[in-house]
Design brief:
721 residues, alpha/beta, 37% helix
């Protein structure tokens, strides 16, 4: 026995008389403090989320390095009379961190206030809760120590009575399976057990039940036939040694698989003490989990979706295609809470929490194991992200004051997927910060649920049509100006009341998106008339309008699933009024925003991807080809992109904490402008970004809105030096 174990044993011996004679309340306080100490050891490496069942409490313990699928239901010990949620979290945190697995612990009701079958009923409720969260029985493992060790076997007996599926395995640490104390070890080890006495156990049993022979109290006397594999730990010096030995023998006699570890000179529930010389027990637990629960999880990887393949190839030294979504809260952001919330959220979005990897024929996305560090948002938005950073993590989270911003590499997701990620992150933050419950609705996903497989699919491949569409388009007018020498991005935000915009759009007989697009096209046309006086030298004015394909095709994907419509006017044919532009935009949107037309567009892109020649072409050759195509046509077909995410809806529990939402699209490699639009709480936020100094387009856009009588507020980070 090593020195740490000797010290622990001597302390247990010292306090043994005191524990045997103190009040139940004092014992409870001491046990709860022990749990707090155990949790503190692993607090930085796990995420804790409480769950209220009403009559009792539970908690999720999730490792930051989650290496296994499935969940462990942990039921704590304490003679059915001691142990609150803090105590339960103690060993649950140890188990979660060491084995890289989610643990749900239940602080069941205690005796003598709530006698048998209260603890068992709460265990059943906890198990059914995990089933309701989508965990199949084959992905649920039970673990318990002392009374909790007996309770997991009683739970299995009760599940058999209820005809519910049994868990995949059981881990019993010094399980108390015989409340009658019939084992010979109660006599043989009375004097050498440093922590427990037969008299104390008799007291606990009397508090819990009037019938200690009931198999649901003492599962040693029950029918163990059909139980899943067991892993048992017990100290060689504890009075309850025979509870475990006899359980092991009966399991084998009943045709069940069972493995027992008897540690010489060890005491009751010794595994909980987390001594270095007993760390091999956690290796044993890990191997057992690999056999019955799941092997160590391999990192997910995904092919780039059809829309994403162009982005790595199109990168420039000073340009990567990112966009930003942000939520400004009513109070300053607590960084510690946000870090914890991000740790939870990334597990819910395996298609976004990724890094870009280079393959032989294609780039691909690989899941990251830990959330990225949160950065201070101290500069202009969408600061250039070096491509090497994309290979480490394809998104970043930034904080400034009360604002939480997330910037996404466009190969990972589109605006819809990014907004769902941000909503879910903010919801988790608010839940942890203010201890409120925010339901999974209005684009907020359940943070503790596993992702639906459909969320990871490339929906372009699913909905590609049989007929392809023509790609022939005219080159659009491109605005120019003085480049910012240091890559600075000028951001101008125009804020309009949503009701006024809706009313004005209604006057013109168009949707809000069509109206804003028409205003933008009018502004660009007016600007071109100033810059290019001769009509015959002017070029078409075209605005690229992304279309969320989830509205046309049933899909829950969190990846890119958007196409576009590009309405245009040709100034060479004459001047256009705003009303005429509105009619053109409305016609074009109605014509192309159709499932058949969009399926043809998808098919056009998918056809190239499926080309046998392209598929076997090495990646470096593909990059050269795709970059050339992008340079030739990718940015020449529109003046800018105007993406409207529409009205943001949040759960009502969440809404009072959110003051503002913003959506910013990074500028393109050659075109100097882009525009992102989002509406929240009665205000439309139009974010116009540019990498040139001259604010000419913003001025013309504002002028058109002002002429229409719309009240506009303007913010800008414009540098005038």
């Amino acid at each position: 026995m090593g020195l740490p174990a000797k010290l622990v044993r001597s302390q247990l011996n010292f306090f043994k008389p005191f524990v045997a004679n103190c009040s139940l309340e004092t014992t409870r306080r001491g046990q709860d403090k022990l749990g707090e100490l155990m949790e503190a050891i692993h607090r930085r490496d796990v995420i804790v989320r409480d769950h209220d069942f009403g009559p009792f409490q539970g908690a999720w313990i999730m490792p930051k390095d989650e290496r296994r699928q499935g969940v462990v239901l942990y039921l704590h010990g304490g003679g059915y009379t001691c142990g609150n949620l803090d105590y339960a979290k103690g060993f649950a945190a140890t188990l979660s961190d060491e084995c890289g697995v989610r643990v749900f612990c239940a602080a069941y009701r205690l005796a003598p206030e709530d006698r048998f079958p209260a603890a068992l009923d709460d265990a059943v409720v906890s198990y059914q809760y995990l089933l309701s969260k989508g965990y199949p029985a084959s992905q649920i493992l039970l673990c318990g120590e002392s009374a909790g060790g007996g309770l997991i076997y009683a739970l299995c007996l009760r599940l058999k009575e209820l005809c519910l599926p049994l868990p995949c395995g059981l881990i019993g640490i010094s399980p108390w399976t015989d409340l009658t104390g019939s084992g010979q070890s109660y006599i043989d080890n009375r004097d050498i057990d440093p922590s427990m006495t037969p008299e104390l156990l008799q007291f606990y049993a009397a508090c819990y039940t009037d019938d200690p022979k009931d198999p649901l109290c003492s599962p040693l006397f029950g029918d163990l036939t059909g139980l899943p594999p067991s892993l048992l730990f017990v100290g060689g010096d504890e009075v309850m040694l025979d509870d475990t030995r006899m359980l092991h023998k009966k399991l084998l006699d009943s045709g069940c698989k069972s493995q027992i570890v008897i540690a010489p000179e060890r005491w009751h529930a010794y595994v909980l003490y987390y001594l270095n010389e007993n760390m091999s027990d956690f290796d044993t637990i890990g191997r057992f989990m690999t056999r019955v629960l799941s092997p160590v999880r391999k990192l997910r990887w995904m092919r780039l979706d059809n829309a994403a393949k162009i982005y790595p190839a199109a990168k420039r030294r000073n340009w990567t295609n990112y966009f930003r979504l942000s939520a400004t809260l009513t109070e300053e952001v607590d960084l510690n809470v946000l870090r914890a919330a991000l740790d939870v959220t990334v597990r819910r979005f395996p298609s976004i929490a990724v890094r870009l990897r280079r393959g032989v024929f294609w780039y691909y996305l690989e899941e990251i194991t830990k959330a990225p560090a949160i950065e201070e948002d101290k500069s202009y938005p969408l600061v250039h992200v070096p491509f090497d950073d994309v290979r480490k993590c394809a998104f970043r989270v930034l904080v400034y004051g009360s604002r939480i911003a997330v910037e996404f590499f466009h190969a990972v997701t589109d605006g819809t997927g990014g907004l769902i990620f941000l909503k879910t992150l903010v919801a988790e933050y608010l839940c942890q910060k203010y201890k409120i419950n925010i339901p999974a609705e209005n684009g907020v996903l359940g943070r503790l649920e596993d992702p639906d497989p459909e969320e990871l699919e490339d929906s372009f491949l699913r909905y590609a049509g049989d007929i392809t569409a023509s790609r022939a388009e005219q080159t659009a007018y491109h605005m120019s100006g003085t480049p910012e020498p240091d890559g600075f991005l000028n951001l101008t935000t125009l804020m309009l009341p949503v009701p006024a915009v809706k009313e004005k759009a209604k006057e013109f007989g168009v949707s809000v998106t069509e109206f804003i697009a028409a205003v933008m096209m009018k502004a660009i046309s007016d600007l071109q008339n100033e810059k290019v006086p001769r009509r015959m030298r002017r070029k078409p004015v075209k605005v690229l309008l992304p279309v969320n394909l989830r509205g046309l095709f049933p899909s829950r994907t969190m990846r890119n699933f958007a196409s576009y419509v590009t309405p245009e006017i040709d100034p060479r044919l004459g001047d256009y009024s705003l009303a005429e532009i509105c009619r053109i935009v409305h016609y074009r949107m109605g014509l192309e925003n159709d499932p058949r037309m969009m399926a043809a567009k998808i098919a056009t892109n998918v056809a190239s991807e499926r080309s046998a020649v392209l598929r076997v072409m090495p990646l470096f050759v593909k990059n050269i080809a795709m970059k050339a195509v992008f340079d030739l046509v990718g940015e020449c077909k529109s003046c800018l992109c105007l993406s409207n995410l529409g009205l943001v809806r949040l759960p009502e529990e969440m809404a009072p904490y959110v003051a503002r939402m913003d959506f910013i699209i990074g500028v393109q490699a050659k075109a100097p402008h882009n525009c992102g639009v989002v509406s929240w709480n009665g205000t439309m936020y139009i974010n116009m970004i540019r990498n040139i100094r001259e604010p000419e387009l913003e001025s013309h856009f504002y002028r058109v809105l002002h002429t229409l009588g719309l009240p506009v507020k303007v913010e800008s980070n414009q540098r005038w030096a």
